[in-house]
Design goal:
Blueprint (H helix, E strand, L loop, with lengths): L2 E4 L16 H17 L1 H12 L12 H10 L2 H19 L6 E5 L2 E9 L2 E5 L8 H14 L3 E6 L9 H10 L3 E4 L2 H10 L9 E3 L4 H10 L4 E2 L7 E6 L5 H12 L6 E6 L2 H15 L5 H8 L3 E4 L3 H11 L3 E5 L3 H5 L7 E4 L5 H5 L26 E9 L1 H17 L3 H13 L1
């Protein structure tokens, strides 16, 4: 537990985790997608039965009004209130993320950008034996705020063909227009291609297993995707004053997601690593999902660095999904950091608060992709188009220089289209 990696003398770059396609998974997913494209709903029914063990013959592929009503009555009032509050927080957060239309006029050219919501999006939420109403809200609410008219939630059914009431309550409260009982690569294919019951969408978002991720990889370009999700990650940067029990709690919180979850603890204080190991041992005694946590923590690393500048280099190299800064002046350290999916400053800012919509979305870049990608936000559900309107005088004014560049590039047709405007102005 907490393998020591001492970079104080030797330094060196750290490699983030990478998502490497498994050839067997690639081939399996390709076959599933081909079936869904060719057979539509029939493939979804058969694959749901064979892969999820759920016969949808009686309940149907699409969640019915009766099922939504049942979910409303079955969800405890305290959980309804918690989900309602989560949705409201996400609405407020998402509203701040939308780009604004603008226009200007200069030298006879009126120019600007228009912002339009996507027509339809698909939100994928893992399920089966797990229940993730928070992911339902995280994926749907930003799309609603962006103005998307059709929002389809796809989630695997339970063996009896039902969807957990808590998931359905969250779907209604967040603003989904349709819920389909389908998971895995087949659900991604249905959303991308469309079937008799499932509308095709323009973008698919949300985390999933290896098969979901590979389906998104294969369909990127057919539809937009938010990214390719890997195991959960956290990097904790701490100094000698950090509370090891709090740090241990955050490492365990990320470790319980998945046996493959990556946890890193970066510090200048070797004694803190010893105290952290002791705190982890104590916390593990009563930890839930203990087997998963222990498997993940077996891969955890304690990274010793010379100073905070080197700590920042480690953070940027790993480009992890979550960064927790347990330093005297976390905001000063923040100025040194470039790469992280979401950043939490100070001992009170436990990473799981962000998982439940306290000022953050939890659909975040993993596997080092925080170097170039951001977390899911309302801006991901709109397109931005340039709009240009020129007067005759402006066309004449810009024609000579623009056409000279076009001819230098060998594009005479481009040049002639502009020169004609000058001749007729």
């Amino acid at each position: 537990m907490l393998e020591l990696l001492d970079l104080r003398e030797r330094g060196g770059r750290l490699e983030p985790t990478r998502l490497e396609p498994d050839p067997t998974v690639v081939q399996t997913v390709r076959g599933i997608l081909d079936r869904v494209r060719a057979e539509g709903d029939v493939a979804l029914f058969e694959l749901t039965l064979s892969l999820d063990g759920a016969d949808l013959g009686e309940r149907g592929l699409i969640v019915s009004p009766d099922e939504f009503a049942h979910a409303q009555s079955e969800t405890p009032s305290e959980l309804k209130a918690a989900i309602d509050a989560l949705v409201e927080r996400l609405i407020d957060l998402s509203a701040r993320q939308l780009p604004r239309e603008w226009s200007d006029e200069r030298d006879g050219v009126r120019f600007g950008e228009m912002v339009r919501p996507l027509r339809a999006v698909g939100c994928y939420v893992p399920g089966g034996r797990a229940v993730y109403p928070s992911s339902v809200c995280m994926t749907i609410v930003p799309a609603v705020v962006a103005g998307v008219e059709e929002i389809v939630l796809a989630t695997p059914p339970r063996v009896d063909g039902s969807v957990p009431p808590l998931v359905l309550y969250a779907a209604v409260r967040a603003g989904a227009t349709k819920v389909i009982k389908s998971g895995g690569a087949q659900a991604i294919g249905a959303l991308a291609f469309g079937t008799e019951s499932v509308p095709h969408v323009d973008r698919i978002v949300g985390p999933g297993n290896l098969y979901v991720t590979e389906a998104k990889r294969q369909l990127a370009g057919v539809v937009g995707i938010d990214g390719l999700a890997g195991p959960s990650e956290v990097v904790v940067v701490a100094d000698s004053k950090a509370d090891p029990e709090l740090a241990a709690a955050d490492l365990i919180a990320q470790a319980e997601h998945d046996p493959e979850a990556m946890t890193h603890f970066v510090t200048t204080d070797v004694s803190l690593l010893d105290r952290l190991r002791e705190a982890l041992a104590r916390a593990l005694v009563d930890a839930g999902r203990k087997e998963i946590v222990e498997q993940a923590l077996a891969r955890a690393r304690g990274i010793l660095v010379r100073d905070l500048d080197q700590a920042a280099e480690v953070v940027d190299d790993l480009a992890a999904e979550h960064l927790l800064v347990l330093l005297d002046d976390p905001r000063e350290f923040l100025q040194r950091v470039r790469n992280a999916g979401a950043i939490f400053l100070g001992e009170w800012s436990a990473v799981p608060f962000g998982d439940y919509g306290v000022a953050s979305n939890h659909v975040l870049p993993t596997a080092g992709t925080a170097r170039f990608a951001s977390g899911l936000r309302a801006a991901d559900f709109v397109t931005i188009r340039s709009v240009v309107q020129m007067s005759a005088e402006a066309a004449a004014s810009f024609a000579d220089q623009a056409s000279a560049i076009a001819r230098a590039e060998g594009l005479g047709g481009h040049a002639r289209a502009m020169e004609l405007r000058k001749e007729r102005a």
